[in-house]
Design a protein that fits this description.
This is Nudix hydrolase domain-containing protein. InterPro entries: CoAse (IPR045121), NUDIX_hydrolase-like_dom_sf (IPR015797), NUDIX_hydrolase_dom (IPR000086). Its cofactor is Mn(2+); Mg(2+). One of its GO terms (molecular function) is coenzyme A diphosphatase activity. Helix content is about 25%, strand content about 20%. It is an alpha+beta fold. The protein has one domain: Nucleoside Triphosphate Pyrophosphohydrolase (Alpha-Beta Complex), CATH 3.90.79.10. Strands 1, 2, 3, 4, 5, 6, 7, 8 and 11 form a nine-stranded mixed sheet that branches. The protein has a three-stranded antiparallel sheet with strand order 9-10-12. α1 crosses α8 and α9 packs across α10. The longest helix is centred in the last third of the chain and has 15 residues.
């Protein structure tokens, strides 16, 4: 874990187009990491409220739009995290001994809503035991006290697992139904684009519902896994413990990358979409082959939805987490993925053709035609 934090701390992001975007097109998200009792990193995520205009009911990193041109990405991400989940802005408002260190920023990503999204990575430092807290535990001391104002739930996920195709924890793998990872190749930005889907197992100790009613937050299967872990001494046994606690230095290569070949295969129109049986693909999507419309519109976060044994993390959020884990652990994923970080090049091209204007035009969509014009540098 210390080396993963050190790798992030020393990461120098390339020049960004974020500051070329007008205020209305700027957004930032917070990747908040903390160490669990085993010393492994976990990341804080949310389930967005059903009454939000965009991405309601989906898993997301805390974050949102910039307020002013003078606001830095970190200031935006921290302010939004305070507004969404109540993460204190000032050190004195954190539990005694805890600190939040800003580690680095990652290349900007392009959201479907045509925002330049800057990921900001921070580390929640857990204090050494002291008289007032003999056994500091971030998940116990801070997360349950968060005020989930704009989200249906706050939950945490094992950070290293975003580099693996299966649950790293064998207890979870054996006792929680469902797969950890699914992925498929599509065409977006006129290039091959990997759609990642992670299904994060949740228990009463890793998910916190809005309103504080956490008794509903664990399914029987997830509860059984948590009980089994507790019976084993309270710390889940992980078959990749060395990988998570002591990642290689940035200069090392611990696994061969599984990125697209030089000429990625064109996704077949008959490729099987990921969605409920009988669901129809969205033919207007810039993603080809298109995914079912229901893929992006999960059920509203009702009690039954939040009781599921796994929460789905996909799309831009999933890709940001994969890229961040690649930097932290200097390790390539065990699944196929895009080799480049973020969407800086596409953001620059869209700005170059007059797209991403301060005011969005009515009916404006990021169509395949727009993407093709951006690729060719043809102004709209």
């Amino acid at each position: 874990m210390p080396r993963a934090i050190a790798n992030l701390r020393t990461f120098k992001p390339p020049p960004t187009n974020y500051y070329k975007c007008p205020l209305t097109r700027r957004a930032a998200v917070l990747i908040l990491l903390f160490a669990d009792r085993a010393g492994d990193l976990r990341v804080v995520l949310t389930i967005r409220s059903s009454n939000l205009k965009n991405y309601s009911g989906q898993a997301a990193l805390p974050g949102g739009k910039a307020d002013t041109l003078h606001e830095t990405p970190f200031q935006t991400a921290r302010r939004e995290a305070f507004e969404e989940i109540g993460l204190p802005l000032e050190k004195e408002h954190l539990p005694t001994g805890y600190e939040i260190e800003h580690l680095t920023e990652l290349p900007a990503n392009l959201a479907m809503t045509e925002l330049g999204v800057r990921p900001c990575v921070a580390y929640l430092k857990t204090p050494e035991p002291f008289a007032g807290n003999r056994s500091p535990n971030a998940a116990r001391d801070l997360l349950p006290t968060l005020d989930a104002k704009e989200v249906a739930a706050v939950f945490t996920a094992p950070f290293f697992n975003f580099l693996r195709e299966k649950d790293v924890d064998p207890t979870i793998r054996d006792q929680v139904p469902g797969e950890w990872y699914k992925g498929s190749w599509h065409s977006w930005h006129e290039t091959a684009w990997r759609m990642h889907q992670f299904h994060v197992p949740v228990t009463q100790s890793t998910v916190f519902l809005a309103g504080g009613d956490n008794a509903k937050a664990s399914s029987p299967a997830a509860a059984a896994a948590a009980a089994a872990a507790a019976a084993a001494g309270g710390i889940p046994q992980q078959d990749e413990r060395k990988s998570t606690s002591d990642p290689p230095a940035p200069s090392s290569s611990s696994s061969a990358p599984r990125t697209p070949p030089p000429n990625p295969p064109t996704p077949s129109p008959t490729s099987e979409p990921t969605g409920p049986p009988g669901s129809k693909p969205d033919r207007t999507s810039t993603l080809q082959p298109p995914l079912p419309r229901t893929f992006y519109t999960p059920p509203s976060p009702s009690d039954s939805t939040l009781q599921q044994p796994r929460y789905r993390v996909f799309g831009m959020t999933a890709r940001i987490l994969v890229d961040c884990a690649r930097v932290a652990y200097s390790t390539e994923p065990s699944f196929e993925h895009n080799s480049h970080f973020g969407d800086e090049e596409m953001i620059e091209r869209l700005l170059g053709i007059g797209r991403l204007a301060p005011k969005r035009r009515e009916g404006e969509v990021l169509s395949r035609e727009v993407m093709e014009r951006a690729r060719r540098g043809v102004k709209i």
